[in-house]
Amino acid sequence: MELLTSPAAEARSFPTDFARTPFLVIWEVTRACALACVHCRADAIARRDPRELTTAEARTLIDQVVAFGTPRPLFVLTGGDPMWRKDLEDIVRYASASGLSVALTPSGTAAATRKRLAALQETGLTRIAVSLDGPDPETHDAFRRVRGSYAWTMKIIESAGDLGLPLQINTTVSRRTLPTLERMAERVGAFPLALWAVFFLVQTGRGASLDQITADECEAVLAWLADLAGRVPFGIKTTEAPHFRRVVAERDAASAWTSDGGTGQRPRGTRLPLRATRAVNDGNGFVFVDHVGDICPSGFLPAPRGNVRECRLVDIYRDDPMFRRLRDPDALEGRCGRCRYRDVCGGSRSRAYAATGNPFAEDPLCGYGG
Ligand code: SF4
Questions:
Q1: Intra-chain end-to-end CA distance of the chain, in Å
Q2: Within 6 Å (CB) of ligand 1, which residues are found?
Q3: pTM for the whole structure
Q4: In a mutational test of the pocket of ligand 1, which residue from 239, 240, 363 has the highest number of ligand atoms less than 8 Å from its CB?
Q5: How far is the CA of 216 from the centre of ligand 1 (A)?
Q6: Each residue of 53-102: pLDDT tens digit?
Q7: Per the count of CB atoms within 10 A, which of 113, 210, 347, 361 is most buried?
Q8: Cα–Cα–Cα angle for 239, 290, 245, rounded to 5 degrees
């Protein structure tokens, strides 16, 4: 999962009643990709799956996204590498003409040429997100397992700048990338960046073979990011580390946490007024459709709750029991269930699922006492 927001996006009106409408709908248009990244959630493959949604089915899916009503969700086309689909321009054009704001996450390969990005922008693409997992070619290419990926990623970034496409950079935090994070911050700061999305590893797909950082290290990274956010001109967000909101809220405790008088003794089922960004979490403001149409709470929580070929996306998102439960902070268990910040955070449901098979268990990457 990568969230795509930017100052321009924030200026738009986006859904806030997540029981009815997600903030983000992410569609994995294909699983095919020329890279073989060590952390790949999708276990991407070097060919297209014949079961992928067709162009006609893509239009039906877009109609289903539009059926959520207004304000409309952001619509993100991801992969694999979405550039493998020859009908990508048709898909973007149809989605844009239907009133959706469309973002794209191309892989760092030769397929994302300036010409093709320009054509996509022409058909309605409004933003782009690329992954950068090292501050130099050696570390990034080793992570992506393809020599030259760093150079291609730089070309995509340059093209985005030339075209005026708002740019997001996604960076993975794992034991392997932890030592390079400070240099990464300097590197991304040199780009015309709207948002740095820092993704905290979920050990699923090929990512299951990567080493996780500890909860204490995670806490230190989140504190560092909170400090950094006050100094840099671009936005910073975390993916699969919702406890960033807890870290920010703790710093802002005097003004943000008022309903419990600062005691933390909040009765279960009551909610705190928040000044912080509205919480988006797996299945809660977020829904993922995979390459064959399966509907999941997240790409990192591969527990299909229906398929867009047979069900309405709106119905699954709003009414499926797992989706409903994922939006209920009182359904959380362990430390997350006891935590005073469960409304604004709730922990990564994907990481809980990857670690225990139970999406409602505590997030093992958070050391907060609850
Ligand atoms: S214990 Fe769970 S809900 Fe509380 S801050 Fe940590 S991850 Fe979030």
A1: 26
A2: 243, 246, 335-336, 339, 341-342, 345-347, 362-363, 366, 368, 370
A3: 0.88
A4: 363
A5: 13
A6: 999 999 999 999 999 999 999 999 998 899 999 999 999 999 999 999 99
A7: 347
A8: 15
